[in-house]
Design a protein that fits this description.
Elements lengths: L8 H52 L3 E2 L5 E3 L13 E3 L1 H4 L19 E17 L2 E18 L5 H8 L3 E3 L1 E2 L2 E2 L11 E6 L17 H11 L3 H7 L2 E2 L5
Length: 240
Amino acid sequence: MKIQQGFTLLEMLLVFAIFGLLVITGIRIYGQLSLQTEVDQINANVDALFQALGYYYQANCIQYKSDSTTVSKPGTLDPRNAPPNPFPIVIASDLLGFLTVPYPFPLNPISNTYVAQFNEYAQTRYLPTNPANATPLGTTYIWKAQVAVQVGKEKATTYKNWMAADCVSTLSGSTVTPCAKAVAGGDYIVWERLPSFASNQTHTDLWQSMQRVKLFTQMYTINPITSIAETGDQNYLCGG
């Protein structure tokens, strides 16, 4: 009796089909893992920029003079210097010494374009002298650090959701329009945080450096309320 050896055509097609399915599944998993790695790297870069911006703010939020005329620290964000709003930051030079990771960042298929800046928000302080009248005591200037990443218009909304960004915006000169003024259809995803936020993913009010305690001390307990009127303008969370 003759025994037939080998594979039938149907068996071979089945093997090829299974092999093809495994290859396709592997490619999809690899693509997903690669994309997640790229997203994580962007988030890490943005975190590093926010940390550097926090250090920059503390170093430049007020002007210091070693004597009556010599300026030892320029205080680029000091309201007395009338800084532009938004205030552009050149990452390669302005954040030199503040960044804790090498810059330029490693190449990333999602984006290699980052824009850092500070956005100013002013609030007038008042002393309620009586229920019908309030006396202005000066202005508190609140600077918020902003980091934007260019990802293209087609994928901006998708990446915004993946990376928990605050908004999608557009480039305006050397800065990116803040979220409060942003319009639809931009190609940058934007995060905006107070200078004390260490991470673009942080949304809690319990800051790592306990800035609420610092804020309370600065705004309410440093001097009697009558003497605060003499200090005039003040930078939010500056110094101390």
